[in-house]
Amino acid sequence: MIQFKNVTKKYGKDITALHDVSFSIDKGDFVYLVGPTGSGKTTVFRLVIRDLVPDEGEVLIGDISIGKLSGSKIPKLRRTVGTIFQDLKLLMDHTVMENVILPLQFTGVSEKNARQQAEEILLQVGLGDQKDKFPLQLSGGERQRVAIARALIFNPEVLLADEPTGNLDSETSYQIIDLLQSINKLGTTILMATHNKEIIDNTKQRVLTVEKGRLVHDRPSAHKKTTESKKEDEGEEKEKKEEAQEHTDKKKDEKKEEHETS
Amino acid sequence: MKHLKTAGRYIRRSPYQALSATLIMTLTFFAISIFAVLTVLSVNLINYFETRPQLTVFFKDTVEIAQIDSMKAQLEATGKTSDVKYISKEQALEIYKNINKDEPELIELVTADILPASLEVQARNPEDLKSLAKVVSGSEQVDRIVFQEEIVDTLISWTHAFQAIGIGVIAILITVSIFVIVTIIGIKITARKQDIETMRLIGASNWFIRVPFLIEGFIYGVMGAMIGWLLSYGILLYTTPILESFLKGVPIFPVPPLTIVQILGIELVVALGLGVFASYIAVLRYLK
Fold first, then answer.
1. Which of A18, A73, B17, B236 is the most buried (most CB within 10 A)?
2. Considering only CA atoms, which of A90, A199, A207, A206 is closest in space to residue A151?
3. Taking CB atoms and an 8 Å cutoff, what residues of chain A touch B202?
4. DSSP, res A221
5. Phi and psi for A92 in degrees, rounded to 5?
6. Which residues of B, range 78-117, sit inside 8 Å of A by Cβ?
């Protein structure tokens, strides 16, 4: 679904935000992108939505090379990739409902249909009764949910979440994670950036670790790991059985030889 | 419709900027309206004088009717005239009375004695007017000869000067209007930079972002044109009786209602172009 092929991105001449980064995320995966502040997590996201263009390498969504997209096709790309920004980027003079239906207005969906669609998503994220409030009237967790609702309004195949638990308490953070996981279960590919160690330690999902612009570790998801381990165990058992069989056959041959000599 | 709503929201959020933009547009279109009306009136004025006799020979009070007949015959004998009409003192008084029919006190003061008798001459070819004047200019009974052409020429030169000044003033006002709208829309774009960036990042096309600002410029233009036109029309209605009594006998009023509506129509088209053009410059400058 998302592929980074030897991507390097520099800011100016001296600052290398990403250096020769390669990874691939399959459709329907939930992947964490972790690393300290300034490690390049946000740059990865900005490259995916073509807010930046790689200096070297290639970023692909499906089979589309993002760097080669013409300017007129960028808005369409951004409608297929839902993004929850680190600073949320909600319009403060718009109500919750207006914020959520805003992307639909870009495509000419009628006001009535847009509101209907937004109401369903607001219910999904638990903000059904907050639609007429302004962002400043909401708690941090609720604002985060508004950003999630807006990112989901196009029912995107890919959802990027940049530090969605950044400024939230532990309980609210887990509520957001649960919400994202429930979205993932419906088939949306999710790439979530975080530097919350607790979340990473407790997750069984795949974790990509970036440090100083380099991908330093790729921890597979527990599910995949289990499957691979099982395969390895089955292989070992088979080998042991084969060895045992060989040993038995050898012994039989030796006894036969002894018997013939005597 | 949604763009109109967004433009309305932008206007409501910064009413003083909207007011400034509308005021400068009003001033511009007020000047354009006044200029247009004055141009129509000056054309009416020139047309009026062009339809007057081309040459008027005024006689002294001592002139005998026979002398006038003789001069009339001499003029007609040249073959260069198309019409020569004698206006006696009494006829002159009738004309005067007709002009001042609403002001009896003026009529009372004037008698036929103080008005001169005259010959009104129309030439077949305007180039012959001077030679026709020469025919009668030698006579001692001729008080003065008035060439209508001179009046028309003077009026035309005044009108041209007025038009040059008017066009200059309007050009300056239009330039100022464009700069004011570019600045105001620019300020609004800068103030909403974060929101615009957000909209772009979540999939808004450039045109989706630009259109409300263009509509805003259009609204300022149209509002300015309407108010400017209404003000000038109000002033025209108010001053028409005063000017009519001042320009007695010169029928340049009223300005036809159709002309007034045409002025509004042209102004609305210009306002639309001006507002959208200024906004578009701002959008190109500030929304790269």
1. A18
2. A90
3. 78-79, 83, 89, 102-103, 106, 150-151
4. P
5. -70, -20
6. none
Closest A-chain CA to B195: A91
Euclidean distance between CA atoms B122 and B5, whole angstroms: 65
Q: Touching check for A223 and chain B: CB below 8 Å?
A: no
- C-alpha distance from A75 to closest chain B C-alpha (Å): 4
**What is the SS3 assignment for A7?**
strand
The residue with tokens 């030698």 is B138
CA gap A161, A192 in Å, rounded: 5
B176-187 pLDDT, tens digit each = 989 988 999 898
Q: Output B18 or B112, whichever has higher pLDDT.
A: B18
Do the beta carbons of residue A206 and residue A220 sit within 8 Å?
A: yes
Largest distance between two CA atoms of chain A: 102
Output the CA–CA distances (angstroms, integers) from residue A213 to A5, A49, A84, in the order listed: 14, 18, 21
Contact B202 A150 (CB under 8 A): yes
Compute the nearest-CA separation of A69 from chain B (Å): 14
Q: Is B195 on the interface with A (CB under 8 A)?
A: yes
Domain ranges of chain B: 2-49+152-286, 61-140
> What predicted TM-score, i.e. pTM, was given to this entire model?
0.69
pLDDT in tens, B227-249: 999 999 999 889 888 887 777 76
Question: What whole-number distance in Å separates Cα of residue B38 and Cα of residue A261?
Answer: 139
DSSP annotation string for A160-193 = EEESTTTT--HHHHHHHHHHHHHHHHTT-EEEEE
Q: Looking at CA atoms only, how far is residue A233 from chain B in angstroms?
A: 47
With beta carbons under 8 A apart, name residues in chain A contacting B209.
Answer: none
Query: CA A157, CA B204: separation in Å to the nearest integer?
Result: 18
The answer to whether residues A18 and A7 touch, using CB atoms and an 8 Å cutoff, is yes
